[in-house]
Amino acid sequence: MHRQSSVTGRVRFRKKLVRTALRLLMERDQARSTPAKLSDPRTASEASQAALGQYDILDTPAEQGFDDIVLLASRTCETPVALVSFVTSDRQWFKARIGFPVCQTPLSQSVCALALEQAETFVIPDFARDERTKGNSLVTQTPSIRFYAGALLRSSEGTPIRTLCVIDTKTRPQGLTELQRTSLEALARQVMAQLELRRLLAQQDRKIAERTRERDRTWRLSQDLLVVVDADGTLNAVNGTWTNLLGWQEHELVGRHFSEFTHPEDLHATLAVFAGIFQAPLARSYEYRLRHQDGTYCYFAWTGAFEDGKVYAKGRHTTAKREQAQALAQAEEQLRQSQKMEAVGQLTGGLAHDFNNLLASISGSLELLQTRVAQDRINDLDRYLAVAQGAAKWAAALTHRLLAFSRRQTLAPGPRT
């Protein structure tokens, strides 16, 4: 029993908590949907003008979207005049108007300025009887307006930037019907939607303009060849670096096929690479030669991609790099030869010693042979001849190897005897 009572209590507590939360949410939504009345008119006016400045709408030409809204407002509220009105520090200006002859009035004639102090749609049934407006020249003189209703235009932050209003030259003690009031407020939201769209489009235009300037700056300052090529290989646009590196002016390049400037030996491979760009971007650079205006050729390493029906490519000048590589190879070869000559010099002493020994062996064998012949002792002559011939052959082998080394010939390995 106690357990059942405890569960019931918890259920009641949860229900109460949910009701409290719902009430707080409703109060919050109501507070958001009904902005508080601004107590300081000067502060409200400054905030309104600051918010208005974000839309950059003042003194812009008429636009069909706003004109359509005032037409609907006039017909819905059954008034001869409808205006999209903005108030600055010194005037009242109308973005769209129907039934009103001028596009702006002095601030002293502004009725929309009074709407800023209101939290909801502002209605004056009879200007001539209202203390705030009965002395207005628009009331005492032509067009002798009497009735006014204005729905506030609020920025995305909720700041009023003035009104969509309707005006009549007849008094309307009943004001607007509920349908007319809600329709006027809905049309006011459409005015703000148009303003927000204009602001977003203006921001987008500024971003596009900035990106265009950045692209043009990159195009102008790049030290690489930049080119836009049509799908058939015709040069569509080139940057100024073509003139700096190849001597060709823009008008001499645009409209001609890139193959006209390609080295004949590179043409077949280059056409194949160009055809491959349509299948996949050329991420790994491809190098080929382009003709300079003076008839010489320069090397460029290219990357590119095919987008929106055109090939966008960049070529980096590699002629100097190639020349440096060739000069380095030559220097390395000269170093190798120098090192080889140095090695030969270091071996000279050893070789001279070897040759001296070989010559001594040959000379000694010949002397002994001469002595034996003179003594008529010819039984051991073959031994001395073999020694002399062996020394002569080894000397010949050394000579052959030295000649091959100097001529960079490959030596066949063989045993030393």
Summarize the structure.
The protein has 417 residues and is of the alpha+beta class. It has 11 helices and 11 strands.
Could you walk me through the main structural features you see in this protein, from its secondary elements to its overall organization?
It is a single chain. By secondary structure, the chain is α+β, with helices and mostly antiparallel strands. It folds into three domains: 41-203, GAF domain (Beta-Lactamase, 2-Layer Sandwich); 222-317, PAS domain (Beta-Lactamase, 2-Layer Sandwich), CATH 3.30.450; 323-406. The protein contains eleven helices and eleven strands. It has helices at residues 2-33, 41-53, 64-77, 112-115, 137-140, 178-221, 241-246, 250-253, 264-277, 319-374, 381-406; strands at 81-87, 91-98, 104-106, 122-124, 147-154, 160-168, 225-230, 235-238, 282-291, 297-307, 310-317. The protein has a six-stranded antiparallel β-sheet with strand order 3-2-1-6-5-4. Strands 8-7-11-10-9 form a five-stranded antiparallel β-sheet, with helices on both faces. Strand 2 (91-98) and strand 3 (104-106) form a beta hairpin. Helix 3 (64-77) packs antiparallel against helix 6 (178-221) and helix 10 packs antiparallel against helix 11 (381-406). The longest helix is centred in the C-terminal third of the chain and has 56 residues, at 319-374. It starts with a helix and ends in an 11-residue tail after the last helix. The model is unreliable at 1-7 and 27-39 (pLDDT under 50).
